[in-house]
Amino acid sequence: MFAAGSVAACAITMVCATGPAPASHSALTLTLQTTDGAARTVQLNCDPASGTHPKAEEACAALSEADGKFGSLVKTSVACPMIYAPLEATARGHWQGSPVDYTTEYANSCVAGAESEGVFAF
């Protein structure tokens, strides 16, 4: 039989051994690729916002509002030139521990930024 003090010590040890729950981390590789194969790639890390994305904080905030769902990003009203220069946009990585594998196409880089709430504005 364990004494009450031994049980308490075991409970404390178990809590200390496991430590706090890890913070959910989001890390994405975002790529814009033209039809001729030229590509631009940035890293976007959230929780905290960092990486090579030029506006990481704003992109992370937009994705947080959309619960990490790229299709739910708010389209912003921006006057974009009507130049057809298609881009394939991809996002690969993890959003709050869940895998992300997203691909879509935009008419040009201005539209990519406007229709992704700035996530693909780089």
Automatic annotation (TrEMBL):
SUPFAM superfamilies: Subtilisin inhibitor
Origin superkingdom: Bacteria
Predominant localisation class: secreted
GO cellular component assignments: extracellular region
Protein name stated in the entry: Subtilisin inhibitor-like
Keyword Zinc: no
MF-aspect GO terms: serine-type endopeptidase inhibitor activity
